[in-house]
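This entry is passed on directly below:
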Amino acid sequence: TAANLLLGGANTISTLNSLSATGTISLQDTAALNVNGNVAAVVITLAAAGLDLASQISATGLALLDSSGSLSQSGGGLNAGTLSGSIANDASLGGTLNSIATLAGFTAGGTLNLTDQTALTQTGSVAGANVTLAAAGLALNGNVSATSSLNLTSTGSLSQGSTLSGNSISLSGTSLALDGTVDATALNLDASAGISQAGTGVLSVASLTGIGTPSGAILLGGTANAIGTLEALAAGQNILIANASTAVIAGQVSAGTALTLQGAGFTESGAGAIDATLLTGSLSGGLALGGSNAIGTLGALAASGNVQLADTSALAIAGLVSTTGTLSLTGTGAVNEIAGGTLDISALTGSIGGALSLANANSIGSLGALSASGNIVLDNTGTITLGGAVSAGTSLALATNGLLEGP
C-alpha cells in the first residue's frame, strides 16, 4: 500500500496481484497484463498490450487503455464511480458484479460489451463496431455509435438525449424517453411502461418496429422524424406517430385505444394494417389505408390530399373529417356518423358492405362512384355534384341544397 504508485516506464509485467493505494495507481505495461488480485485506489489507470481482469478493481475513477490488444473480464467486478477507456480491439466487460455509476468516453476497435448491475449514466462518447450496454437503468447523455449493431438494454428506465447511431439499433427498458437523435437503418423499441419522444427528438430510420405491453403507450411526437417504414408496432394504450416525410405502413400497427398520425402522409403496403379503437390525424399530404384495417371510430382527421380508408369492421365517424381531395370509404361493415361527426371534403366515393348513414351537416362537393348494400342517407349543406353512379341496396335519401349532374 502506498499513497501513489506511478509506473510509467517501458514495463513488462504479465500478472498483477493485490495492489492498493490511498491516491493514484498508474501502470504502463508493454506486455499483456492479467489482473489476478484485487486492485484499489482513488484513481486507477491501467495501460497494457492486452488486459484480462480476473479480480475486483475499485476506484472513484478507472481508465482502461490498450493500444494493440483486447480487453476481457474473466472474473471479479468493477466498482467504479467513473469508467473510461480506449481499446484497440474487442472490449468485453460482461461481469455480473460490475457496479459503475458513470461511463465516460469509451471506444473499442471491435466489439464493446458492458454489463452493469446498477443504474448507469453515460456522458462521453462511446463507440465500437458492435456495442452492447446492459444496466439496471440507462441515462444516455453522450453520443453512442456502432458501425454495425447497437443494443442498449435496461431493466429499469432508458433515457436518451444526444445521438445514437448504428446500422441496427435495439432499445429496451421499462420505459423509453427518446429526446435526442436516433440514426439507424433498423430500429427496434421495446418498453413495458411506454415509449415517449420530445418534439425536438428525431428518429431518422429506414424501418421501425416497437412493442409496448397493455400498460404502455407509444408517443413519437418528434416533428422532424424521418421514418421510412413502420413494421410491427403495438401498444396497449395510445400510439402517436409524427413524421416529416411520407411513411409506409408495412406491418400490423395495433393501438389499444387511439392511433394518431401526424406529418406528411402515410400509405399502407403489403401486410400493412391498422387495428385501433379510434383513428385521428393531421396530415399535410394524403392518407392511403387500403389494407385489412379494423378501425372502430374515425375521429378528427385533416388532410391535404386524397384519403383512402378500408375497414373490415363497422365504422363510426365521430369527428370532423376534412380534405381538399377525395375521401374513399370501403369495407364490409356499416358506416355511420354519430354526434360530432361531419365531412368537409371535395369528393366522396366508396363501396360499403352495410348501410351508409351520413346524416349530419356535411359539406361534400361531389359524389363519385358510391355503393352500399344497405340504405344510403346523405345530408349535405350545399350543392352537390353527381359525378358517378350511386347505388343503394334498399333506399337512397338525399338532403341537399342542390343536386347537379356532372359530365
About this structure: The chain has a mean pLDDT of 95.
